[in-house]
Amino acid sequence: MNVPGLRIVYWAYSEQIGVEDLAEIDKFRAEIGENYASLVKVFPHERGGEVFQFAIEFFADLTLKDYLTFIGGYIAGKAVDKVVDPILDAYLFNPLKKAYKKLKEKNPDLGVYKFSFDLSDTKITIYHLDGDQLLDNIDLIIREIGDRYKELQYLDELPMEIHIPVIQDDIKGTVYFRPPFEMDEKFDMRMYNYTEGYWGLKLFKYGLECIYSLEENKIITDIPFYTEEELYSRRILEP
Fold first, then answer.
1. Rounded distance, CA 224 to CA 89, Å?
2. Dihedral pair phi/psi, residue 81, rounded to 5°
């Protein structure tokens, strides 16, 4: 099994030379680099915006089914032995969680607003819920995806994209579902969570942008799902 990849981008306030970066970020980079093919990249941001919020992308040359099979026993709690394989440990995100915890102790404002799994047959994007720690819920979300793997397929197709969670919205009489708008909007975890409500799906073969109801455990095709970029390109939202 190959070493997985990890790409982390975030924003920090601009200075005259460079940025006001996170304390001990170089230690974090080095620790992540021991377990992943990694890139940790900072972008300058003007004063007044939200900074120090990670967008994390995990990528591996595995199908979703193979990934779930590989880590399934540990995620489901069936394997009681300690994880001793460093590559398996990386696929379970334990080195990432450990390094992130140490970095957050030095930087209390640090957060994760988006986490993506980019696999060979699908991409899963998970969004931060207000008042919640996204990384603490990764195992829960992976278990939920594994439990619903068959129901997430439409006829013979696994969605090319899965977005978790999404909410219903209505603009100019158009009813649709969408994810949060990047860092500027966070869902209240008292109203939404990862294992109830709806997920957004994109199916390439059948040209569908639809939702999956966790309560009904089925795909619903008559209500569309749009990303933020698509809402602007379709002029449902105005720039």
1. 37
2. -70, 150
The alpha carbon of 208 is separated from its chain's Cα centroid by a whole number of angstroms, namely 21
User: How far is residue 164's CA from residue 228's CA, in Å, rounded to a whole number?
Assistant: 14
Task: Find tokens 């306030």 and name the residue.
Answer: 13
The structure's pTM equals: 0.89
Q: Which of 103, 83, 101, 81 is nearest to 91 (CA)?
A: 83
Question: For every one of its 239 residues, what pLDDT tens digit does the chain have, with 9 covering 90 and above?
Answer: 789 999 999 999 887 666 789 999 999 999 999 999 999 999 988 776 788 999 999 999 999 999 999 887 676 555 545 555 788 889 999 999 999 999 999 999 999 999 999 999 999 999 887 666 789 889 889 999 999 999 999 988 999 999 999 988 887 777 899 988 766 666 655 556 788 889 999 999 889 999 999 999 999 999 999 988 888 787 777 76
- The number of beta carbons lying within 10 Å of the beta carbon of residue 209 is 19
Dist CA 206 CA 220 (whole Å):
14
**Intra-chain end-to-end CA distance of the chain, in Å:** 45
